[in-house]
Amino acid sequence: MNDLNTQMEWLSFEQFWDGFSELDLKMFKQDGTLATPYFWLIFQLLYFLSLRTFFTADLTSSGGLIIIRTGTRKFVMSKVISLLLYTTIYIALFVFYICFVSSIQHFLFDSSMSWKANWETSIIFCIFLILVLFLESLFYELASLMMGDIIPYIILISVNFLSIFSQNIVLVTNYTMFSRWSETGLYSDNTLLMLTWVSSMIILLVLLTLWLVKKIDFVYEKGE
C-alpha cells in the first residue's frame, strides 16, 4: 500500500482534467477503443447545471425595472462580472481540493506533487480553464435568451465531447484539457495567440449580449 501511494497520486490535475490524451487518441484511431474522460465530462456537466440561466430569469422577472433604473450597459456588465466571479470560484474550489489531497498524500507517503512540479503549466492551464468556461457560459446565457436553456446546453456539451477527437488549437474547448498542455508544446508555445483568440471571442459575446438585451427591451416596449 505504501509503495502504491508513493508511485501514484490519489488525485491530480492529470487525473481530473486530463481529458482525452494523445495516447487515447492514437488508441482510438488504431483499434476504436474509446477511453471516455469521465471526470472531465462530469466537471463540464456540473458547471452548466449549476450555472442555470440566471440572465434570462432576471430579464423575465424584474429585468425591465432594473434596466430602467441602471441602464442596459450596467445591467449586462454586472451580470458578466458576476459570471466571471462565479466561474473563478467554481474552478478555485476544485483546484484547492486537488492540491489539498495531493499535499496530504505527499506528507503521508512522501509522493511527488505533480501540480508543484509543473506549477507553471498548472497556473497557465487554470487561467485558460477559467477563461474558456467563462466564454462558454457567456454563449450559454446569450443563446438561452433566444432558444431557452436546453438547446444551448446540448450544443455546449456536444462541442466539448467532440473536441476530444481533435487537437486543433482554434477549438477553445481543447484548452480545458490538461493533457493538451502537458503532452505537447503546441499550446504552451502559442499561449499569447490563444489568449488573444479567447479574449476576442469574449468581447464579441459581451457586445452581442448588449445588443440583444437592448433589442429585446425595445421589442418589449413596442409590444406594449
Report what the structure shows.
- The chain has 224 residues and is an all-alpha fold.
- Helix content is 79%, strand content 0%.
- The protein starts with a helix and ends with a helix.
- Mean pLDDT is 78; it is low at 218-224.
- Rg (CA only): 20 Å
Assess the beta-strand content as a share of residues.
Answer: under 5%
> Which runs of at least 5 residues are low in confidence (pLDDT < 50)?
218-224
The biggest sheet, with number of strands, parallel, antiparallel or mixed sense and barrel status, is:
none
Number of helices: 12
The overall strand count is 0
Structural class: mainly alpha
Average pLDDT, to the nearest integer?
78
Shape: globular
- The percent of residues in helical segments reads over 70%
Helices and strands, in order, run as HHHHHHHHHHHH
CA-CA gap between termini: 71 Å
